[in-house]
Design a protein that fits this description.
The complex is a heterodimer of chains A (about 325) and B (about 325). With about 325 residues, chain A is an alpha/beta fold. Chain A contains 13 helices and 8 strands. The chains are: A alpha/beta (about 325), B mainly alpha (about 325).
Chain lengths: ~325, ~325
């Protein structure tokens, strides 16, 4: 009677839709999960907490000697703190500073391979505070390992993350030096570009689908500090999908893109609809420098300010 | 058999298509009053508006038209030849093969406007040839069921391959691949339009020329053979051309689901039986569906484009359900 019910179920379109629905459903339920319990005694003594609300133990009495860092930003911070030699594991994508490459690659940072992490015998695991990592974090905690979950989405998150990591590995002084230096550089860039005219910026993250940065991204902060204005600062998500037609309508002064993206923008006829592309105001960003909200934030702000304001110097 | 109301329906469909096309060029992030439209198309007026209309919207709407027409014709021809109401352009492993090609290209970093369509088309052709070879090896001479099964199996294999490749890919690549699988004409340019136009011109013309044979094939293997048609040869070349048409649409716009499945049913529901009229009607209705769906995809949730394949399915399903009720 309804022959269409016998259609093959496993076609890509169906799979894509299912995957999307599943992801949405998981995200929705995970959001409603209760936060971790907050022991009242811990709150009384103002124990610092990670981004899941779990207390971060001070590393002064029992210094962690074997650390697994499952996020490129935390790996950078740990190296900057001087704890790089204690790292016994990283993700596949943690390749800065160059010494990080020598640390064993344990695979992905989202839904990490718990067996591989346990096999590294860590006493501290740092991971990204994503709902994808809840299950892995619970297993590691159950194995008696101290887990710190950090969100590296905004510039403000960098300060607290560095302070927490410094505390956890017993290097709080080094953490203070790093956060002070980054904060000072950012403040200087912000102040010295403040009087310059604000150029409007379209930040090209990915094409097909065309992805840019929204208010939820640290890059939005970085553009503002460097004296620019993100044309999609009104959209909340960190990486919203937009249409090229709308980019043309918002008519940004400049386009920022990585080297490959810039080459594609210059060669693709469709991009000619955007006036900044017609004027060849396509600026190439050093994506390895500005790609993550970490110890090189100050450097990233300086390089961005130089791009946006020719002739500017720190 | 062409009923008396067919010419009226054809005129109405063409008129609706023209109106939709006009609306699709006028509406979007920037709304252009119809009287200013001709000026913008000719290159006069606000430069941003002119750039949007000439370099983005015109190629995009044209590509939507061509893709819709090709999917409609391909579906109409396949349903008749395979004598299966569920047959559709993506069935013979086309979507799976194209997706494998596109995903491999994306993972390898070949995301340019040139390489990805080429990889998708290559993947689709490999899958089509594989399905034909499997059905031949299985001895399914003129039995369309064997070919259908071969296509389904190849599609399932392709899906497994995609899952394996994407399991280890970075998040951006996965997002890009999933979006590609949901279809889009957002990346349209005149070069892509020209390629799609050439495929549709040749493939569409061949199917129309073979329309008489398709009428006979639709009767079944034995009646067709009795009427002197070389069933195997005729069927095979109709499959091949229909599948290549679908492969061209996949290369141009990714996977735009459901159009090739429902559009022929809609046309048949309007009383059209002969395949020359049915294929023509399916081209017009398919074009209207995709142009309309893309318009909705653009204006429903600005500044974002909704995935085209999802919109065509959401739009198409109610029509299809009404059609099913009538069949009972």
């Amino acid at each position: 009677m309804f022959p269409f019910l016998r259609r093959p179920l496993l076609r890509p379109l169906t799979c894509a839709a299912l995957a999307l629905a599943l992801a949405l459903a998981c995200g929705a339920t995970a959001c409603r999960e209760p936060r971790s319990d907050t022991p009242s005694d811990a709150r009384a003594t103002h124990v610092p907490r990670d981004d899941w609300g779990n207390p971060v133990l001070a590393g002064t009495t029992r210094v962690p000697a074997r650390i697994v860092s499952l996020n490129p930003a935390s790996t950078e911070i740990l190296f900057a703190l001087g704890a790089g030699s204690r790292l016994v594991g990283r993700t596949h994508w943690d390749v800065w500073p160059p010494q990080a490459v020598a640390v064993p690659d344990l695979g992905p940072g989202l839904r990490p391979n718990v067996e591989a992490v346990l096999a590294a015998h860590p006493d501290l695991v740092v991971l990204y505070a994503s709902e994808d990592n809840r299950a892995a974090a619970a297993r590691l905690s159950a194995a008696g390992i101290h887990v710190i979950a950090l969100r590296f989405d905004r510039i403000s998150g960098f300060d607290s993350a560095t302070t927490l990591l410094g505390r956890a590995v017993g290097l709080s002084d080094a953490a203070r030096v790093i956060t002070d230096s980054v904060r000072r550089t950012l403040a200087h860039v912000r102040a010295s570009t403040d009087s310059l005219s604000r150029r409007t910026v379209f930040w090209h993250v990915w094409d097909a689908p065309l992805i840019t940065i929204g208010a939820g991204s640290f890059l939005d902060d970085l553009v503002r500090i460097a004296g620019g204005r993100n044309v999609y600062g009104d959209l909340q998500p960190a990486s919203p999908v937009v249409s090229l037609e709308d980019v043309a309508r918002r008519d940004p002064d400049v386009i920022l893109a990585g080297p490959e993206g810039a080459a594609r923008i210059r060669s693709d006829p469709a991009w000619r609809a955007v006036r900044a592309v017609q004027r060849d105001d396509v600026l190439v960003v050093d994506t390895t420098l500005v790609g993550r909200p970490s110890v090189r934030l100050g450097e990233a702000a300086v390089s961005l300010a130089r791009l946006l304001h020719p002739g500017w110097s720190p | 058999m062409v009923s008396r109301r067919t010419p009226v329906l054809a005129a109405a469909a063409l008129l609706a298509l023209a109106a939709l096309t006009l609306a699709a060029v006028a509406w979007g992030s920037v709304h252009i009053p119809v009287r200013a439209l001709a000026a913008a198309v000719a290159g006069h007026g606000d430069p941003t508006t002119v750039a949007i209309v000439r370099t983005l919207r015109l190629p995009r709407v044209t590509l939507a038209l061509l893709v819709g027409a090709a999917l409609g014709m391909s579906g109409g021809a396949l349903q008749a030849t395979l004598r299966n109401a569920l047959a559709e352009p993506y069935l013979l492993g086309v979507s799976g093969g194209a997706a494998v090609g596109a995903v491999l290209a994306t993972v390898a970093g070949l995301r340019g406007p040139f390489m990805l369509p080429l990889a998708a088309f290559g993947g689709a052709v490999v899958a089509i040839v594989a399905a034909l070879l499997v059905s031949r090896a299985a001895g399914g001479r003129a039995d369309p069921r064997v070919l259908l099964m071969a296509g389904v199996i190849i599609g399932a294999f392709a899906n497994a391959a995609i899952m394996l490749v994407l399991a280890g890919a970075p998040a951006d690549t996965v997002r890009g691949a999933v979006w590609w699988m949901m279809g889009s004409v957002a990346g349209a340019d005149w070069r892509g339009v020209a390629a799609m136009g050439a495929y549709l011109a040749v493939g569409g013309a061949l199917l129309l020329v073979w329309a008489r044979e398709i009428d006979i094939l639709a009767l079944g293997v034995e009646p067709a053979a009795a009427l002197g048609v070389d069933v195997e040869r005729s069927a095979r070349r109709v499959y091949l051309v229909s599948a290549l048409l679908a492969a061209a649409t996949v290369a141009a716009a990714g996977l735009v689901g459901f159009v090739g499945l429902i559009v022929p049913h809609l046309v048949r529901g309007a009383g059209v039986r002969r395949h020359r009229a049915l294929l023509g009607g399916a081209a017009v209705a398919g074009a209207a569906l995709v142009v309309g769906a893309d318009l909705i995809a653009r204006v429903a949730r600005p500044p974002m484009d909704l995935p085209l394949g999802a919109v065509t399915a959401v739009l198409g399903v109610p029509f299809f359900l009404v059609q099913l009720r009538r069949l009972r």
